[in-house]
Amino acid sequence: MAEAPDRRGAVIRVTGLRNSFGEQVIHDNLDLEVRRGEIIGVVGGSGTGKTVLMRAIIGLQRYDAGEVEIFGRRVSGLGELEELELRRQFGVLFQNGALFSTLTVAENIEVPMREFYRIEDRLMDEIAAYKIAMVGLPPDAGPKHPSELSGGMKKRAGLARALSLDPRLLFLDEPTAGLDPIGAAAFDQLILQLRDALDLTVFLITHDLDTLHTICDRVAVLADKRVLTVGTIEELLAFDHPWVQEYFHGPRGRAALAGAAAAGV
Ligand SMILES: Nc1ncnc2c1ncn2[C@@H]1O[C@H](COP(=O)(O)OP(=O)(O)OP(=O)(O)O)[C@@H](O)[C@H]1O
User: What whole-number distance in Å separates Cα of residue 76 and Cα of residue 91?
Assistant: First the structure.
């Protein structure tokens, strides 16, 4: 699919999005733009619809109204081939890793390759080994099953699968949840390195204030059924809204800010 030129360099553009489940309206008239090459953090209180927004963008959630464009193309109403071509260009790491437990790590990474291409097994094994190295897993992780991996290794394996088809856009749903602080910091750095090395755009849902401070270029705040504001951490620190103030200026927010300042971020 040829990439349509986008006058503002937006990789994702969401306009007027409305999502509901029965009587419960999750998003109403939500707008968001994600710029090429940025890591955008998506934050908001529990239940504000961060995951629903991600699912709507990647085509897993039917929305009531609005428009989603990726790489300048409207995602609704695409033909089957165009949809496949679009899906090939993004990778997703779901909240729980979502690895197939009966498959090895290498086989998990090969699932998208099998879905989209006809590639010789030997070549797929080589690509899987390359992705395993790329996410910092040891070579012997390939033949292991997810149950044999630590939480951090599972996340890396999920990331390797998300990178299976060399996507240009990466969606990560709470990638550092459940990791210890050292593991979480290492995972943050991995995301940053991959973004730079692979020229990725990253949509990252997180509650992790350290992640926001250390690797996000901008942060989008979900509240009141929409994206309340998008900005750098500095801009959000000055944003006058009770949830934003509490989140960034509460004890954890202050600790993350101090940590980032000490690290020179
Ligand atoms: N398939 C569904 N059916 C009905 N309600 C749903 C469905 N999926 C999500 N919801 C509701 O939509 C709201 C938003 O859910 P979502 O998982 O997007 O929140 P979130 O912001 O990601 O929350 P958290 O930070 O706790 O992960 C919640 O109230 C949830 O119960």
Answer: 19
Q: What are φ and ψ of residue 175, in 5° steps?
A: -65, -25
The pTM assigned to this predicted structure is 0.91
Which residue minimizes the CA distance to atom 26 of ligand 1? 46
Q: Rounded to the nearest whole angstrom, what is the distance from the C-alpha of residue 130 to the centroid of ligand 1?
A: 35
Return the structure tokens found at 192: 């940053």
Pocket of ligand 1 contains residue 108 by CB under 6 Å:
no
Q: Which run of H or E residues covers position 234?
A: helix 233-237
* Predicted ipTM of the assembly: 0.97
94 Cβ closer than 6 Å to some ligand 1 atom: no
Domain ranges of the chain: 99-166
DSSP reduced 3-state for 137: coil
Query: 133 falls in which pLDDT band (50, 70, 90)?
Result: very high
Planar angle of CA 35, 41, 42, nearest 5 degrees? 105
126: which 2 tokens?
Answer: 């080589």
Q: What angle do CA 102, 105, 111 make, to 5 degrees?
A: 75
In short, whether 50's Cβ falls inside 6 Å of ligand 1 is: yes
